[in-house]
Amino acid sequence: MIASAGRKGVGVSQQLPFDSLYRHGFARVAVAVPPVRVADPGFNAEQTLLLARHAAAEHAALTIFPELGLSSYTADDLFHQDALDAAVGLALEHVVEESTAIETVLVVGAPVRAQGRLFNCGIVIHRGRVLGAAPKSYLPNYREFYEKRQFAAAREALDDHVVIAGQRVPFGADLLFAASNLPDFVFHLEICEDGWVPLPPSGFAALAGASVLVNLSASNIVIGKADYRRELCASHSARYLAAYLYSAAGHGESTTDMAWDGQALVCENGNVLAEGERFAGHPQVVTADIDLRRLAADRLRTTSFADTVHDHRERLERFRRIDVELPVPAGSVALRREIPRFPYVPADPARRNERCAEVHRIQVEGLSTRLTATGSQRVVIGVSGGLDSTVALIVAAKTMDRLGLPRSNVLAYTMPGFATSTRTLEDARRLMRAVGATAHEIDIRPSATQMLRDLKHPAAEGVPQYDVTYENVQAGERTSHLFRLANLHDALVVGTGDLSELALGWCTFGVGDHMAHYSVNASVPKTLIKYLVAWTIDTGELGPEAGAVLASILATEISPELVPSDGDAPPQSSEATVGPYELQDFHLYHLLRFGDLPSRIAYLAHHVWSDRTRGGWPDLVPADQRHEYDLPAVKHWLAEFLRRFIQTSQFKRSTLPNAPKVGSGGSLSPRGDWRAPSDASAAAWLDELDRNVPG
């Protein structure tokens, strides 16, 4: 019977220290490849125990070994010898007995005689108990394989229990081992060929709730096979939204007709997390920290996954669940997995350039299609000399190229206000010329002053009252001008605001930078906006003059430039109000993409940002701009993000203009990834953050 995956064990995990990976939905797993001796179970058992103890010392909750590792895979007709069967029995008893003092769940491979047949099994052992045994379902009997000569398949079993090491235990390919103390950790066993067939047993197990798919393999090595195995394991993990652990037989198996490379893999949702050394002449244990919460989040949101469960419900209901209490350490266990500092920006330059090129193509495709559909041949855009309008202007220019129209059809307007700096104004002028747009300049100070005068605002009389009205009058004047200019020139207004600003509500609603006929940056976060500008410089497509001004824009502090600075005071800073964009983009990604608990987001952010020397950085970030944030700072800015995102800004996102989604990290359009009430409270998020994050 299928049990609910639920949130069983949440209370247990919350009792762990904040700095334990096991508290935040991760689990460390191990893939072990010991040396073997053919048909020498005593030796093989000792090698198994040696690596099991090593994995336990690494705080791995689960450790898997190769197919038939206790007997060796290449025993051939020796499998039918009573002496080998007796030796395997003694080796299993020894491993079971020793497991009482080993803090990891073991999955070992061994032949099991039962019901007058011989089965090739994966056996789960923990704390002196055999929890169950899974026989191989598909026996290869082609080319170099002759397994049907020695073994029976799982479908030939007559009973769903067998006796192993003196214990009567569940037996079958339908076993799910569910952790009672670690939410979302459910594992299933399949053996070698089972993972190569058109409908692998692990696929049905995943639909029945297994999040960790285990393959005990022998798999001899031939040219090209290692790459195929890697692709197969990674694709399994992607298709089934799961982790996939693979351990192949290695050094010591008979080379009478075949050779063995001992490939060890841990994959998760399409990615290879860890891989061991192939052809190693020594024992090895490969560990990885798998993200159970990420897998659960993806399954929860992927409605087609649930539909497939429904379509196979009759088969899935026959799976049996076996509870197991994983050996989760009570103390701190540091996360070894590298979490990207910039989830929207690849650190690798080649991948980053590919990402930027793809984003740019999506933006151009979106705007060109909208212009074609409306019959418009011109666009109106406000250019501030800042990052967002720079990217939007470049997209508009390239859109004209794609449509075979002159770039002069881009009607670009810079509109200096009360706090516009000389630098940004000059950068805007230079940029408009460099891209070939039709450049205009409108001083909005007279019209903004008249608006303030009509409102009887003190600033109209020179009083330095720089409140939200003072700021929004300027933003509104700019947008009002753009829409009327679009009417005049039969054009569309191109919006410039980005994903980060929409998430934080850092835009002026309605007649302000919130509104446009079509937006091109609305699902591009601020951290990626910077790299789109840098990528444009690197490509050199716009020429050296444009490259120089783009470099200046990239080096300018992000500011709305709505409040005049006082003498030598620094200019108005967006990040001083809403938080560092690099940190807030990290928070946004993990909340929007996975729906993570605030405490988990804080844990991940602290892991990533607390030490600038740990993990990779994009090469375009200079050493003096590689920032660190301690846990109190992370907690402070995450609270600010949650208040803004959940409680105060949704009404702006509920009325967004059309814009193309560019990444799997999500968009905030109510017609796309995000639908939320405008009057929600952030209390639950802030309370969880306050209760579960120290500092």
Structural class: alpha/beta
Q: How many β-strand stretches? A: 20
Identify the strand order in the major beta sheet. 13-12-11-10-9-8-15
Radius of gyration equals 31 Å
* Envelope shape: elongated
Unreliable runs: 1-10
What's the end-to-end separation, in Å?
A: 44 Å
Task: Give the biggest beta sheet.
Answer: 7 strands, mixed
The helical percent reads 25-40%
Mean pLDDT: 94
What's the total helix number?
22
Amount of beta strand: 15-25%
Q: From the structure provided, what is the oligomeric state, counting identical versus distinct chains?
A: single chain
Descriptive account of the structure:
By secondary structure, the protein is α/β, with parallel strands linked by helices. The chain has 22 helices and 20 strands. The strands form 4 sheets. The chain has a 7-stranded mixed beta sheet, with helices on one face. A 6-stranded mixed beta sheet has the order 5-4-3-2-1-14. The longest helix has 26 residues, at 349-374. It is elongated. Mean pLDDT is 94; it is low at 1-10.
